[in-house]
Amino acid sequence: MSNQTSVTEFLLLGVTDIQELNPILFVIFFTIYFVNITGNGAILMIVILASRLSFCGPNHVHHFFCDIKPLLDLACGNTELNLWLLNTVTGTIALTPFFLTFLSYFYIITYLFLKTHSCTMLHKALSTCASHFMVVILLYVPVLFTYIRPASGSSLDQDRIIAIMYSVVTPALNPLIYTLRNKEVRNALNRKVRRWL
């Protein structure tokens, strides 16, 4: 059976018919590609360096899942390079969208205060931002706390609590936060709470 595809050129060339935008689009897509290759290479380096470590003590990871930091705690050799590379990669991966999110919040809030003259519109926009901001905080703070803080100040108990918060509490609260923005859901919840009390 022969190929029945009618596309004969690169798919993204159809993004725009304006020839002047092609170099800009090329730079954007090349940058995304380069960042992905660099990040994957750094993650591969972490895996290779961790696989070359020797483990002489107990082989039980005291964590809810096999994360790299508790695994490095079991190693007998020097793990400074591993921790440095891990903190660099995870810090970059976590901090870049974190700061871009805060930059967008700064832009939105600045625009709202400078251009919006209606208090009801401002209140509605800020309440939408507040619920999204709470979800962003619940998502990023545990990640930043786990991977950005120095290894000397970390304990396995703190790491396990943070892991529970990141993997259980945040996904459970995310739909709840967005659902409570609905007026009907809030009223139904208020009626249930009054019945219990």
Please summarize the sheet with the most strands: none
Q: What's the mean pLDDT score?
A: 78
Residue share in β-strands? under 5%
- Terminal-residue CA separation: 70 Å
Category by helix and strand content: mainly alpha
Please give the radius of gyration in angstroms: 24 Å
Measured as a percent range, the helix fraction is over 70%
Tally of helical segments: 6
Number of strands: 0
The secondary-structure element order is HHHHHH
Low-confidence stretches: none
Shape: extended
SSE blueprint:
Blueprint: H1 21-51, H2 68-73, H3 80-115, H4 119-147, H5 156-179, H6 183-196
Helix pairs in contact: 1-3, 3-4, 4-5
Report on the structure:
The structure is a single chain. The chain has six helices and no strands. With 197 residues, the chain is mainly α. It has a domain of 106 residues. Helix 3 runs antiparallel to helix 4. The radius of gyration is 24 Å and the shape is extended. The mean pLDDT is 78.
